[in-house]
TrEMBL record:
<feature type="compositionally biased region" description="Low complexity">
    <location>
        <begin position="248"/>
        <end position="264"/>
    </location>
</feature>
<dbReference type="GO" id="GO:0005886">
    <property type="term" value="C:plasma membrane"/>
</dbReference>
<feature type="compositionally biased region" description="Basic and acidic residues">
    <location>
        <begin position="224"/>
        <end position="234"/>
    </location>
</feature>
<feature type="transmembrane region" description="Helical">
    <location>
        <begin position="20"/>
        <end position="37"/>
    </location>
</feature>
<keyword id="KW-0812">Transmembrane</keyword>
<feature type="transmembrane region" description="Helical">
    <location>
        <begin position="106"/>
        <end position="129"/>
    </location>
</feature>
<feature type="transmembrane region" description="Helical">
    <location>
        <begin position="141"/>
        <end position="163"/>
    </location>
</feature>
<keyword id="KW-1003">Cell membrane</keyword>
<protein>
    <submittedName>
        <fullName>Cytochrome b/b6 domain-containing protein</fullName>
    </submittedName>
</protein>
<dbReference type="GO" id="GO:0020037">
    <property type="term" value="F:heme binding"/>
</dbReference>
<dbReference type="InterPro" id="IPR051542">
    <property type="entry name" value="Hydrogenase_cytochrome"/>
</dbReference>
<keyword id="KW-0472">Membrane</keyword>
<dbReference type="InterPro" id="IPR016174">
    <property type="entry name" value="Di-haem_cyt_TM"/>
</dbReference>
<feature type="region of interest" description="Disordered">
    <location>
        <begin position="215"/>
        <end position="272"/>
    </location>
</feature>
<feature type="domain" description="Cytochrome b561 bacterial/Ni-hydrogenase">
    <location>
        <begin position="16"/>
        <end position="175"/>
    </location>
</feature>
<feature type="transmembrane region" description="Helical">
    <location>
        <begin position="49"/>
        <end position="68"/>
    </location>
</feature>
<feature type="transmembrane region" description="Helical">
    <location>
        <begin position="190"/>
        <end position="209"/>
    </location>
</feature>
Amino acid sequence: MNPTPSSLTVQPAPRVWDAPVRVLHGLSALCFAGAWLTAEVDRLRPLHISLGLCLAALMALRVLWGLVGSPTARFSHFLKGPTAVVKHFTELTQGRLQAHAGHNPAGGWAVVGLIGLSLASAATGWLTWTGGETFEDLHEGVATAALALVGLHLAAVALTSHLSQRNLVASMVHGRAEVPPSEGIPRNHTGLAALILVATVGFVAWGLAPNSPLRAPGANETAETQHHRERGQEPDDEDEDEAPRLMSGAAMPPASPASATAPRSVRHDDDD
């Protein structure tokens, strides 16, 4: 008897990304985007610092997981030599791509570049906060380079997804890809991913607490700027309000000497 369609079970595609890799990827993207958007807002400086420190910790964990994690998460799995990278770009220009369980040869080196620039951005940001404006230009330059590499990475993901007819973004979300079953990973490590997520959210919440040390003025922050930030104001707001008052005061003519020195008349009631 032939099996009916209802009796057939559809096997899901093999899992190629474990939960820690996917959580680290998503959290690091959110931390980088949030840190970039809050960089120039003084009242959000504690959030900016918290996100930067989280980004550094997440990248450090990614390096550790790249050494001892699942097969597809390890650097030894996706870091290839120049020959493999050139072959990948040749296939890319010809519109044919080989399926990879994990990062392709070019994407693997992009991951290393993003990890390195993220760590450098966080380190120079901390030096700017603790050491003053000496490192500010370096911090901005590294962050801009990281943003450029992020843009290039996203463009490459979109192009590769189009040419290979595989949704690489969806694969990073659910962790599965259309590859031979032998190339899948055996464990998902969900508990470790949950621990990373809880620790990240908890650290950001701690950084935003009223008594958090991240609210202390940095080396390049004056007491006046700190006062404005605690009140939820931009430092220039009060200065702009002060200008009309100064102008109105300057427009008032000075009192004449006569009016300034003239005695006031005192009215005395006659006694009956």
